[in-house]
Fold this sequence. Notes:
single chain, globular, 8 helices, seven-stranded mixed β-sheet, alpha/beta
Amino acid sequence: MRAGRFATMLVLAGALAACKGGQHETPDRKPDQVNGFPVADRPVASIVSSRWSNEDARDRAGEANEVMDKAGIKQGMTVADIGAGEGYYTIRLSPRVGKTGRVLAEDIVPETRDQLGTRVSRDRLDNVSVRLGLPADPRLPENSFDRVLMIHMYHEIESPYEFLWRMRPSLKPDGMVVVVDADRPTQNHGTPPALLKCEFAAVGFEQVSMAPMPSAGGYIALFRTKGERPEPGTIKACRDPAQQAEAK
């Protein structure tokens, strides 16, 4: 009885080893969906630094003021700075929105969030709060923001459809999302404008404007919501136009 059971176990072990060893092994496949949302059909850039460029150099180029002007940010507004990093925009948004406005600065790296919190406290920016977000969910309160800024970070979002879907309810009825990025492939730390427009449209946003932004090394694009927020299962992933051209 024991000998027969042992022989059976050997046969099963051999079959399992054969499957793992080669031709019967099921190859790894990239899932089509995660958490019910489509997977981005393009590379995702790694987070290499919390600093995009030297702050003095950015000020000399007039970057922050130009972005805030084109985004229509003014006194009394409530603004979210997503992927705030070391706080270049956060500390410049604070005086722009004034005492009657609010700034929520967010990052997904705890150490970066803590460093920014220290900077905000040191500079006594009483209208700024700092919090930790999640890679696929900014966890923003609903119907709260006039503007949501995403500066030089969109290409680092691994799950853009889920992220935008969860972010969308945080906008006020006339609120807008402001994206600044470089016009280059996502793996090279940029986002082609056509791909950006497609991914936002897939989650129920329409592009309000897009303009060159040399001072920030690329372009600035503004989006607002349009229609109802789609069900996650109905969202279709976009394809990078550059990848489509290479496939032809």
